[in-house]
Every structure is written in C-alpha cells, then in structure tokens.
Amino acid sequence: MQQESAELIGLKVLGWLAAEEEIFPVFLGSSGVTAQELRVRASETEILSAVLDFVTMDDEWVKACCQATGLDLHEPMRARQALPGGAQIHWT
After folding, report:
1. What is the tens place of the pLDDT at every residue in 11-58?
2. Taking the mean position of all CA atoms in its chain, how far away is CA 44?
3. Is residue 90 domain-resident?
4. Long-range contacts for 53-60 (Cβ within 8 Å, ≥24 apart)?
5. 87 lies in a domain?
6. DSSP string across 57-71
7. What pLDDT is attached to residue 83?
8. What does the pLDDT read at residue 59?
9. Residue 85: pLDDT above 80?
10. What is the domain count for the chain?
11. Residue 78: which domain range?
12. Domain assignment present for 89
C-alpha cells in the first residue's frame, strides 16, 4: 500500500473515531492531543499513525469502524504498516 492511500484510510478512521462518543475521549486522553489540536493536525502522518494504532488495538473497534466506513477489515492495519514506524518487526 502506498503512503497516500494509507493516509486516506487514516483520515476515514479518524472521521469514524471522532464520531464515537465513548471511544473518542479515550483516544484524546491516551494520546495527549486535544480536540482542537487534532483538528489542526488531522492530516499529519504522526496523528494518523496514532489513530490507526489506537483503533487497531481492539478488534471490535476495527469491526465497527470498517462496517461504518466500508473499509475491508484488514485495511486499517495495512494502512498503519504503510506509514512510517508501522513496519512489522520479525524477530526470527
């Protein structure tokens, strides 16, 4: 996946996350970013990576996000892997 495609997926996931009243405040608290800062920095790779990292922590969040956005269940993780710092580490 190209970085540009990954960023577009990250923006879709961010849009879904921002609309989730129960999960969005948890993201803000865990990331340390404010809602205002998020609006300003939404297209930055660091923010999109953080969003994808957060959502992919929970399978139910991934399922809900993909159902709401029309994404394939594997796209959020693939997008995260395509962004800087997202490569999977193989220890063997």
Report:
1. 999 999 999 999 999 999 999 999 999 999 988 999 999 999 999 999
2. 12
3. no
4. 53/80, 54/17, 54/27, 54/30, 55/13, 55/16, 55/17, 56/80
5. no
6. T-HHHHHHHHHHHT-
7. 87
8. 94
9. no
10. 1
11. 3-82
12. no
